[in-house]
Structure formats: C-alpha cells, structure tokens
C-alpha cells in the first residue's frame, strides 16, 4: 500500500509520501511516489500517487512523454491547475481502459492521485483525482487530502490541522500522522519524501528524503510517544460506574 | 459501520462497542452490539458483533434460542471458551449460507464477532471470529482485537497498550481509541457500551452505557485534545533541510 498526504494552507503547500510498494508481503520495494515539475517563476506542480504501480507509472510516463514531445496539452502548457487535474484524470481513465477488458476487473488497476501546485496569476490549488478520472478540490474548510492507507493518520489531522496554521507547525502535524501510520501498518514504509512550497514563490523546492536515520524525525517520533504515554497517564481515573 | 474493541489482559477483560448502524447515510439507528451471558460463579461470556445487522442478530438469535430450548451445545453447556468459539463460528457459517445463494454475493452478508469470557477452571479467553467461521485467540503478545472501523483507533493501542497494564489504565487507552474513531468517522457513533471483567470473579458485570453527556468521557476527550495540541506545540522546530 501507500500513504500520501497533501495540505493546502494559507501560507503554502505541504506534500509527504511514503515509498513502499508491495506485491504480496514477500515482494517489497522502494518506489518514489512524489513527482515534481516546474518552470522557475511561472509554475510549480507536485503529483503524488497511490494504487497499482503500473497504472501510476503509466500516467506519469504519459505526462512526461507529452511534455518531452511538446504534445499539448501538457504539464507546462495547461493554463490552470484545474486544466491539469482534467488532463491527469483523462490520462488515468485512458490507462485503466487500455489495460483492462471484459475479463479483467478494473478495480485491480485503480490508482488515485493528488495534484497540487501553483501557476503564475492563479491561487495555489490541490486536487484529489479519483480512479474514475473525476476530482475534488481542497478548500479552507477541508485543507488536506490523503490517499492510500489514510485512516491511521487521520485523527491527528482532524484534531489539529487548520487552514491558518503556519507551514512548520502543519509539517509537524503531518509528520506525526505518518509516524502513527508507519507504526500501525507495515505496508507503509520509510523513507518518506517531503516537500514544502511557500505561496507565490513559483520555484520548485528541492524537497527532503526522510530516512529512518533522520535525527529530526527520530526525535519527534520519540517525543510524540512520550507525549501520548504521559497524556494517558495524566487522564483522571475512570469513575466507579465504569467498573460495575 | 461499527467499532468494537476487546482486551484480554493479565488482570481481566475489557470490552467496548459503539451502537451505530447504518443502511445508507440517511438510515442510521442505535443497536446494541455487545451481548453478555453468565452463570454466577461458573461462567461469564461477552460477545461483540460487527457487520451485516441481520447476520449478527441471527447468530445471537440462534445462540439464545439454543439456550432457551436447552438444545446442546449452547452458551451454558460448552465446556470451554474454545468450544464456544467453535459454536459461534459454525452458526455464523450456517446463517450466511442460508441467506445467500448463487445469485447473492456472500460478502454482503458477512459479519465478524469477538467472543471473550471465562469458564470456571479455565483461563480467560478472547477470540476473533472471522466471517468464514474460523477464529484466532488473543495472547500476551497481542492482547487486543478490534472489529469494524479499526484503523483510526489502532495507533494509540499499538503505542500504549500492554498485557500487564492495570484495567483502569487499559480502559482509558481504549476510550481514547474510541474518541479518535468517533471524531474521524461518522459511521461510528455514541452511545458506547463498556464492560470490565475482573479475572476469576465469574460474575457478569452490569456494564456501563456511555452517552455523549457522560462527564468522565467528556473530560478525557477534552483533556486528550489538549494533550495532543500541546504535544504538537512542544515538538521541536523542523530542521532547515525540510524547507529546501
């Protein structure tokens, strides 16, 4: 499986993806699931993928192929992030239709994508593209999307994340969401890829690969465990009626 | 959906279930999913259910019918918890087979059950019964089982719960697991049913129905939110390389 999370906040965008893929528990590999594209001063695009690896790679392959051959519409010719979401959705539908037939179950080849970024003159946008090729857009009410193994890491986002949160605080919240998921589900694995985009900067960040040896991640992971253990310890004793 | 959790610890057993059932989002009802049976001084049995409501009610119905008619094996005639798990599994298979045929997809009628308790002269046991009727048993390495919407509330159990934990601490951990699930998934809803059994007491506890107005649950829910928010606040700032 996979866990990818993306935030669209007042100050910018945050993207984090894991890198584990598996075809059965005895066939585990590391594959990057976070792709970036950009033209300095003009656009920044980040795509995260979850689901069938051949499908996700085919969609990314077509996007890059269109770009290389100048076949429009492509990543650098679309006028808006909305048009890009439409292009990705259309390629996704096409890839799934090509690989399946009456004898192959479509859902085995499904994937989901998160597409975020900013094009000059436009607001930042973040889209969640469904396997059917349609999509939804993040808002200030719901500033985050998750794909893949999303449930383990959802409670902390639901409790703590807000649209107005500074990027460094939101990053911590998102890293804790990953830490919880990594501990509870072996199909999500290190290293992680993280990328933080500051609103209107229109430059592609270098991004950060977070390995198991990363001192900062180790530190917050340890500290968070202590926070939870001490927090449980500090809860008041249950009232007597719980033990009747 | 549903969320049920059961713990088999050194000092006793803890069971908590939600009560929400839904057939579509516009058809939500309250149904108890925690059933207890017992003979004072001889046996205590608790069954929790998740899945198709007609299937779970049919299994419970057959168990109670067998008992009422004295048709052996029944809840009070089985010699061990292992025999009881076998009986529940067999009834479950039978109920699903009766309702389905070549034209009905079996998995739509699936349910899972947790069966825990103690019979005089035996250790306490906790079984997780699969829709296929087979089952697994909790151990000191893995002292808890969940059925239904289990993922949201799993991280806190994975981090904090141990076999040696006192019952009141384990209860708090389990209530926090429910609080996280309730906040992130509307298909799991209050009130909750909680039941704590002390090892070797061989009496059926009265149990506690936890409503939204329950002062203790409100208090720990509020305090836990503060713990998480303050804990996030106290995490060290991300190192610079995260922002490159």
* Biggest interchain interface, per-side counts: A-B, 52 and 52 residues
From the alpha-carbon coordinates, what is the Rg of chain A to the nearest angstrom? 19 Å
Note the main sheet of chain A.
Answer: 5 strands, antiparallel
Q: Can you list the strand order of the major beta sheet of chain A? A: 10-1-2-11-12
Query: What percentage of the residues of chain A does DSSP assign to strands (E)?
Result: 25-35%
Tally of helical segments of chain A: 5
The CATH topology of chain A is what?
Answer: Glutamine Phosphoribosylpyrophosphate, subunit 1, domain 1
The H-level CATH homologous superfamily of chain A, spelled out, is Aminohydrolase, N-terminal nucleophile (Ntn) domain
CATH architecture of chain A: 4-Layer Sandwich
Can you describe this structure?
2 copies of one chain form a homodimer. The first copy, chain A, has one domain (3-234): Glutamine Phosphoribosylpyrophosphate, subunit 1, domain 1 (4-Layer Sandwich), CATH 3.60.20.10. Chain A contains 5 helices and 12 strands. Chain A has helices at 53-69, 81-99, 154-160, 167-184, 215-234; strands spanning 3-9, 12-17, 20-22, 28-30, 34-39, 43-51, 111-119, 125-129, 135-137, 144-148, 192-198, 208-210. Chain A has a 5-stranded antiparallel sheet, covered by helices on one side. In chain A, strands 5-6-7-8-9 form a 5-stranded antiparallel sheet, covered by helices on one side. A two-stranded antiparallel ribbon of chain A has the order 3-4. In chain A, strand 7 (111-119) and strand 8 form a beta hairpin. In chain A, helix 3 packs antiparallel against helix 4 (167-184). The longest helix of chain A has 20 residues, at 215-234. The mean pLDDT of chain A is 94. Chains A, B: Keywords: Hydrolase, Protease, Proteasome. Chains A, B: It holds the Pfam family Proteasome. Chains A, B: This is Peptidase.
């Amino acid at each position: 499986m996979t866990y990818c999370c993306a935030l669209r906040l007042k100050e910018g965008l945050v993207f984090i993806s894991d890198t584990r893929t598996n075809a059965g528990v005895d066939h585990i590999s590391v594959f990057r699931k976070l792709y970036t594209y950009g033209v300095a001063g003009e656009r920044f695009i980040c795509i995260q993928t979850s689901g069938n690896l051949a499908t996700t790679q085919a969609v990314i392959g077509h996007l890059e192929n269109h770009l290389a051959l100048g076949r429009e519409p492509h990543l650098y010719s679309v006028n808006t992030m909305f048009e890009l979401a439409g292009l990705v959705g259309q390629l996704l539908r096409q890839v799934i239709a090509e690989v399946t037939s009456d004898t192959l179950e479509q859902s085995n080849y499904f994937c989901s994508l998160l597409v975020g970024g900013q094009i000059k003159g436009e607001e930042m946008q973040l889209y969640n593209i469904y396997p059917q090729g349609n999509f939804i857009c993040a808002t200030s009410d719901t500033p985050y999307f998750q794909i893949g193994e999303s449930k383990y890491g959802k409670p902390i986002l639901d409790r703590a994340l807000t649209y107005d949160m500074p990027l460094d605080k939101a990053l911590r919240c998102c890293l804790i969401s990953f830490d919880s998921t990594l501990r509870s589900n072996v199909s999500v694995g290190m290293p992680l890829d993280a990328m933080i985009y500051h609103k209107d900067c229109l430059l592609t960040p270098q991004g950060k690969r977070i390995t198991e040896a990363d001192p900062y991640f180790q530190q917050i992971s340890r500290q968070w465990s202590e926070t939870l253990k001490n927090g449980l310890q500090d809860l008041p004793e249950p009232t007597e009626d719980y033990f009747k």
